Amino acid sequence: MGTMKYFLEMEVARTKKGILIFQRKYTLDRLKDTGMLGSKPTCPHLERNWKYRIAKSDPLVDKGRYQRLVERLIYLSLTRPNIAYVVSILSQFMHSPTQQHLVAVYHILKYLKGTPGKGLLFQKSDAKGAKGFTDAN
């Protein structure tokens, strides 16, 4: 069968540094599906305490559409741990999403527009053990 290059919407690339797993095509397909392929990229962060600032009078949006978008972001967060926290917050509102929740989903999609090829790099190393990195923001 040869070397794996594409499996379950995940792309695999081997480099001198190690193995890179990313979802560039999946990301671009989601941007195309939502009509955001030409959107301007933005930063990934929502403002502090965002979920507590949503008014109860904010209009509800199509629940099915919101759920599909968030489900796709959840799958994308497998190779993009930098969006996992924000996506987990957005997934808490799957039962009754409002306009502000949908705006936040589009905010994440705009961030992905600027970074479609980011992913996980598993570096070659002779050392035993695991290393990790986290962004304190």
Strand order of the largest sheet: 1-2-3-4
Query: What does the radius of gyration come to?
Result: 17 Å
Give the low-pLDDT segments.
Answer: none
- Termini distance? 42 Å
Element string (H = helix, E = strand): EEEHHHHE
Put simply, the count of helices is 4
Plain-language structure description:
The chain is an alpha+beta fold and 137 residues long. It has a domain at 26-115. Helix content is 36%, strand content 12%. The protein has four helices and four strands. The chain has helices at residues 24-34, 63-76, 84-91, 99-114; strands at 6-7, 10-14, 18-22, 119-123. The chain has a four-stranded antiparallel β-sheet, with helices on one face. A hairpin with a 2-residue loop joins strand 1 and strand 2. The mean pLDDT is 84.
What keywords describe this structure?
single chain, 137 residues, alpha+beta, 4-stranded antiparallel beta sheet, 4 helices, 4 strands, 36% helix, globular
